[in-house]
Structures are given as C-alpha cells and as structure tokens.
Prior knowledge:
Blueprint: H1 2-27, H2 29-32, H3 40-61, H4 64-74, H5 85-108, H6 110-116, H7 123-138, H8 140-148, H9 152-182, H10 188-193, H11 201-218, H12 230-264, H13 267-281, H14 285-305, H15 311-335, H16 337-340, H17 356-372, H18 374-378, H19 382-407, H20 409-434, H21 441-460, H22 465-487
Amino acid sequence: MSALRKLAGQTAIYGLSSxxxxxxxxxxxxxxxxxxxxxPAEYGVxxxxxxxxxxxxxxLTFGMETAYFRFAVxxxxxxxxxxxxxxxxxxxxxxxxxxxxxxxFAGASSGNIASGLGFPAYASSxxxxxxxxxxxxxxxxxxxxxxxEGRPWKFAFINMLSVAVNVGLSLFFILYCMKRYNMGETNxxxxxAYDPSFGVGYVFAINLVATAVKLLVLLPSWPSPAHIEKQLxxxxxxxxxxxxxxxxxxxxxxxxxxxxLKYLLPADxxxxxxxxxxxxxxxAVLITLFIQAFRMGAEPFFFSHAKEKNxxxxxxxxxxxxxxxxxxxxxxxxxxxxxxxxFIPNPAFHEGLRVVPILMLANVFLGIYYNQSVWxxxxxxxxxxxxxxxxxxxxxxxxxxxxxxxxxYMGSAWATLACYAGMAIISYFWGQKHYPIPxxxxxxxxxxxxxxxxxxGCEQVALEGVVKYGVRAVxxxxxxxxxxxxxxxxxxxx
Length: 494
C-alpha cells in the first residue's frame, strides 16, 4: 500500500495546481454565462476557438513530455554523466524552435485564419490564441522536469500563480468592468480601462497574460547554454511521434464535436448551440479534473514502479480505486443537479443539461483508458496507443456527422461516450495479450452500474425540498461507504 499512498500523495499535490486551476476556471463559468456578460452565441465563440487550441497544443508538444519521462528512466548515453542536463536542454530547445516558428507565421496570418474558421470578426482573439499556444509549448518541458524530479510543490506554486493572475484579471475586467457596463453602470475607472468593442477578446487577453507569467517564473530554470544532441532528439521524436498522433486523435475525440457543430448546424444557431453545449460540458468537470491530476501523478509513477514486485497487482488495484472515485463524483453531480445547474446562472443555457450524465460516463471510460495505457507505454508499443486513438477518432467523427444533423449536440454527447467506451474495450483486450494486468473487470462494471442505477432510481421517486436532498445524500453516503468497505486498506495484522 505504500506505493498507492505515494501515488495518492503526488496526485493530491499536483491537484493543488491541476485540479484547483481547472476548478477555478470552472467557477468562472457562472461569470461568463451570466445574463450581463456573454450570451450563448458569444460563449460559443470562446468554446469553438479553444477547441482548435487544444488540437494545436498536442501537435506542437509532439509527445515530448512523455518522451522526456521515458528517457530520464532509460538514461541514454548522452545524459549518463551530466545529471540529465543534455536531455533537458535537447527536449526544451527541441520544442522552442518550432514554437517560435508557429508564433511568427500563424500570428502573421491570424486574420486569414479567423476567416477560415468562420470567425472573421475575431482576428485579434486568434492572434492571442496563437501566442498562448506557443508559450504553453515552450513551458512544457520545464514544467515536466519539476514532475520528473519529484517537486510537486513548486509545480503547484507556478500553476497557481498563473491561475491567480487569470482570476484576478477576470474579476476586474469581466465582473467589474464588463458586467457593470452592460448593466448600465459606468464610472471613471470603467471608462478608462474597459473597451466594450473588445468583447470576448478579454477572455483571451487575460489567458495570454497568465500564460506569460508562467513563462517568466520558469526562465531562471531555463537550460543554459543551449544544446541539442541531435541523435537524442531523433530518438525522442521517434518515441514521441506515435504519442503525438495518439494525442491528436485523443483531442479530436475530446474537442472535434464543438468544431463540427459549427459546420453541421444552421449558421443562425450554430454559435449559440456550441455555447450551450460547451457550458454544460463544464459540469462534467469533477471527473475530468480528477483524471487530469491522476495522469500527472500516475505517468511517472507507472514508469518508476514497473519493475517492482507485484507491480501489476498494484496497477489493477489503482484501477478499482480510480473508478470508485470517478463514479462517486458522478453521483455527486447527478444527484444534486438541481443545485449544480446554477453554476450556469443564465437559464438560456439550461436546455443542454441533458448531456451531462452522458459526458460524465464518457469521461469515466476515458479515465479507464488512461489507466490501461500503462501497458503500451511500458512495452514501448506507443504506436498501439496511436492506433487505438485513431480508431476512437474515426468513431467520433463518423457518429458526429451521422447524429448532429438529426439530434444536434446530443449526437455529440453520444458520440463521445461511444468513442471512449470503445477505446477502453479495445485497449483492455489488446493489453491483456502483451502486458496482462489482472484488472477486476466485474468490480469495475459493478461500481459503474451501481452509480447509474442509484441515480436513475432517485430520478423515479417524486420528492421535493429537504426530503429530496436528504434522501439523495443518504444514497450518496451509502454508495461511498460500500466502496470504502470493498477497497479499504487491509492491515497486516487483520
């Protein structure tokens, strides 16, 4: 259990930055979706543009983060005698050069790009996104180095500083200036600091400043002098390329629905529908945040513990605990949806709440797939991961094109669930042939089915007020108590 405790501790600390950072962004959703800030169509612009950003981030980082972890363990000849300085410098500058080229050329073409994406009035927002993507790429390896060296507190501090800047500027420009201006309240400070014509551009400008702050804090740890070991870079690129393709396919699975909606829905409602879907997607955040923090702690953990005795049994136990936590989060949100929905204060968005249970279950399957990915990473079969993700991307695109014209954004939600469930199933059977891990499949399915049945059952009982929430709280506590009884640590003396 000591290995599990170590993973839990690292996941918790990384969560201070990863979970808390995204959760704070989640808490900004009520601000962005209030009646006096952004209407669904305006929020749809933000959602759609950030969807493109996610795809480009994967391409520019080129799987180099995971390659950095892998080669730090492999200790190639180029870094055996220099404490990893060659590896660090090669990986960092290997990403810096393409990032700079991207910022120069894409930035110069931001107007044409905005028009091509269907948002010709938002060229300045596209330019800011280009800079955000480039800076994020540049900081990838310095942040990964903190994880590889086991320095989660510094990692958390840097991320939280960036979040603090984001939140502070959002509260000033959007809550204080924009909201008050739209409510008809003005004063000298608002007149001097706020330009109403900039609109949703403030979201991107604030993000750009926060990202730049992260870069400034990391500059003292920048590798110097600059050195790229070409042979090492080629080996890392060969390792990372399949991961990049897998990551790109994964981002297609995660974000392409909001992109495709733009082109398959009627032009007069597309942006508003994307905004509604994107806002309600945020309510799946409790699961997606945990998955993100888990991945950050789990990836270096899996590599460093793979050779230990009973490591596969440990990995199987981690899967049980992971699904138990995810399904508990599912119940928290779904049993108390009447409360959670007011994180989106404008009722114009509430029609999309029906996608939430589908998307939450989809993300549980995605987390299961991430857990299983240990088998092809530890056996250096990263092309397999790419193949599975490409299959998932094909499912996503095909079902989106088939379902969106019929049922709108509900088709996107069902396509996401089908994609992630399919990827998890394929990965399980493939992995058992090459790196068999004794997953307790029946227990995992029991946890998932139990949560869904409890939620469905509560929906069938007509209760109101305090009684309703009291019954649901008892159901939730009973589910968590049952999971704890099944997964609790067993003391050596028992």
